[in-house]
């Protein structure tokens, strides 16, 4: 992959998120192998597949071992349907029952934790001559959505399960500290989940699938898989946290963020760079400008604290990162030219800047860095080292 391929010989914006479809495919094959054939894999592609492009990732994951998909909100599910994805599709967040016509039209499974929503769904489904598949959410300690483990919850779940045109496809919960070493609270959450399972059985309330493990659960809690798991971040080759990592699993990072240098110049000792004059050249300094900034999702918090790869070597980013541009100090790199590739995260020759490194420096998690790479950044999809697709969100060519 060179810059000419990535930018179609500079006829496209020279900033791109490079998405390695081969890596994504192999990651899913490894996840599938790891969880075994008795467990369904529900690939989480919310947030535009953590910035990677939901439509493209959904296809790759389904072709390489995923059984079904999950997103966060109904519109994300509709986007996938409108692009021809026919697999089972679960919306993990809240969907108001009054959105029943979209739910029915696009055949989407929704998460339910309120009788009113379920009632709307059942009534609309009856009119449409169909039924709606739902997953009950249980709040076992996350404190976000779902039924708490008590008899009142069981009564309402029973009432919903008696509605004639909704069918319980699943029952799930979500762990809040499965990405730390201490297992105490996750075990407590699973204990509450198991209480639910037992009570549902006693009340003869059926549910086809039980699921609670996200990525960290997939890595650290095989005993809690039940019959389905919901991997997210590990599909994209990143660690859930520094305590629960993918080390030894052979997963590869899928996205890298790249651009081409737009300007190179020498500045004198004492000259300053960017807004606020927060970098002063300590000696004559060679500055290169990159056409990427925080409006692309490259965090301003990284200003003056991060490095960028040029010619396979780390160079310091200098001065405040602007909305659309930033500068780097390339004094130490010979022969830097306009058009040369700079890597904001990812691999270049033998050097790597990981998403985790940037997340640490900005006090956030890898998920947020990836999701924030936004629609102004073209996605360049590569397979076995060749460009196979380009998605230009702004130019509406996807
Ligand atoms: C986002 C999400 C996941 C996937 O999370 P990762 O940590 O990225 O694996 C799984 N389940 C639910 C309910 C989620 O909201």
TrEMBL record:
CDD domains named among the record's database cross-references: PLPDE_III_AR
Q: Which GO terms describe its molecular function?
A: alanine racemase activity; pyridoxal phosphate binding
> In the UniProt record, does the keyword Disulfide bond occur?
no
Read off the Pfam families from this record.
Ala_racemase_C, Ala_racemase_N
**Active site located where?**
46 (proton acceptor), 275 (proton acceptor)
Q: Which domain of life is it from?
A: Bacteria
The EC number on file is 5.1.1.1
**Catalytic activity, as annotated:** L-alanine = D-alanine
Which sites bind substrate?
Answer: 144, 323
Biological process per Gene Ontology, one example term? peptidoglycan biosynthetic process
Q: What class of enzyme is it?
A: isomerase
Quick check: keyword Isomerase in the entry?
A: yes
Q: In which pathway does it act?
A: Amino-acid biosynthesis; D-alanine biosynthesis; D-alanine from L-alanine: step 1/1
Which Gene Ontology cellular component terms are annotated? cytosol
- What Gene3D superfamilies does UniProt report for this protein, alphabetically? Alanine racemase (3.20.20.10), Lyase, Ornithine Decarboxylase, Chain A, domain 1 (2.40.37.10)
Q: Where is the Alanine racemase C-terminal domain?
A: 254-382
List cofactor names only: pyridoxal 5'-phosphate
> Modified residue N6-(pyridoxal phosphate)lysine is at which positions?
46
Q: Which PROSITE patterns match?
A: ALANINE_RACEMASE
Q: What does this protein do?
A: Catalyzes the interconversion of L-alanine and D-alanine. May also act on other amino acids.
Q: Say which family it is in.
A: Belongs to the alanine racemase family.
What protein am I looking at? Answer: Alanine racemase
Instruction: Give the species this sequence originates from.
Output: Megasphaera cerevisiae DSM 20462
């Amino acid at each position: 992959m060179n810059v000419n391929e990535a930018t179609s010989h500079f006829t496209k914006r020279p900033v791109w998120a490079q998405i390695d479809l081969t890596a994504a495919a192999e990651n899913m094959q490894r996840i599938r192998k790891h969880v075994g054939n008795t467990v369904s894999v529900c690939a989480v592609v919310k947030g535009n597949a953590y910035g990677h492009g939901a439509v493209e990732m959904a296809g790759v994951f389904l072709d390489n071992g995923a059984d079904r998909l999950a997103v966060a909100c109904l519109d994300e599910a509709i986007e996938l349907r409108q692009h021809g994805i026919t697999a089972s599709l679960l919306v993990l967040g809240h969907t108001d029952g009054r959105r029943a016509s979209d739910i029915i039209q696009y055949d989407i499974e929704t998460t339910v934790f309120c009788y009113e929503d379920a009632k709307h769904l059942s009534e609309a489904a009856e009119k449409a001559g169909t039924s709606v598949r739902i997953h009950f959410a249980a709040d076992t300690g996350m404190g976000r959505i779902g039924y708490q483990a008590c008899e009142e919850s069981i009564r309402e779940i029973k009432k919903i399960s008696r509605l004639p045109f909704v069918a319980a496809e699943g029952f799930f919960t979500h762990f809040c500290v499965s990405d730390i070493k201490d297992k105490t609270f996750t075990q407590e959450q699973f204990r509450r989940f198991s209480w639910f399972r037992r009570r549902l059985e006693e009340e003869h309330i059926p549910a086809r699938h039980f699921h609670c493990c996200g990525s960290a659960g997939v890595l650290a809690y095989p005993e809690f898989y039940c019959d389905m798991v919901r991997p997210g971040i590990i599909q994209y080759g990143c660690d859930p946290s520094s305590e629960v990592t993918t080390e030894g699993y052979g997963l590869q990072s899928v996205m890298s963020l790249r651009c081409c240098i737009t300007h190179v110049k020498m500045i004198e000792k004492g000259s300053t760079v960017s807004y606020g004059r927060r970098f002063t050249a300590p000696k004559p300094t060679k500055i290169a400008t990159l056409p990427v900034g925080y409006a692309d999702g490259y965090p301003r918090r990284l200003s003056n604290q991060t490095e960028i790869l040029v010619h396979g070597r780390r160079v310091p980013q200098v001065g405040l990162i602007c909305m659309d541009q930033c500068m780097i100090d390339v004094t130490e790199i010979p022969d830097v030219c306009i058009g040369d590739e700079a890597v904001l995260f990812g691999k270049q020759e033998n050097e790597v800047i990981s998403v985790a490194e940037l997340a640490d420096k900005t006090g956030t998690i890898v998920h947020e860095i990836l999701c924030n790479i936004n629609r102004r950044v073209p996605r360049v999809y590569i397979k076995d080292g060749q460009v196979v697709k380009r998605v230009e969100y702004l130019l509406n060519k996807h």
